[in-house]
Design a protein that fits this description.
Length: about 140
């Protein structure tokens, strides 16, 4: 049993003439072998590209699904954040903890801050604006 190309000369023991080979039972001219190699290479490249495109489409589908899920989660968290930040909710929670609105606002200056000067200035402006209106009412 022989493996590989077999030379078919038509005569036993004669040299091949015209470069004809028998490859897998087919007569092939030596010029056709490079063409066959090129066609085979193109076929392998096509199959490889098709496999890559298929894999890329699966990756794209997965990423699209992840994106949709993340957008849904973002919308849900945004709604939850707005609910948690609502003034009505904060007031209701403060009242359940026993906190009540103050009748008078008090500013507490922090060490190193200029809040005391701002508060004094605000009080002076309030007193100045209240004085002319009280004299006009008399």
């Amino acid at each position: 049993e022989q493996h590989g190309p077999v030379v078919d000369t038509g005569q036993a023991g004669a040299e091949p003439s015209g470069g004809t080979l028998i490859v897998f039972g087919f007569n092939c001219h030596l010029v056709l072998l490079p063409l066959l190699a090129v066609v085979t290479g193109i076929g392998v490249a096509y199959v490889g590209e098709h496999a890559t495109a298929t894999q890329d489409s699966y990756v794209l589908a997965g990423l699209t699904q992840t994106n949709t899920s993340l957008q849904s989660q973002d919308n849900s968290l945004g709604s939850e954040l707005e609910t948690l930040k609502s003034t009505e909710r904060i007031i209701a929670l403060a009242q359940t903890l026993g906190m009540r609105p103050s009748q008078q606002w008090t500013a507490v200056p922090l060490p190193g801050s200029s809040l005391a000067s701002i508060a004094a200035s605000t009080q002076q402006q309030a007193a100045a604006s209240a004085a002319p209106s009280s004299s006009q009412s008399h």
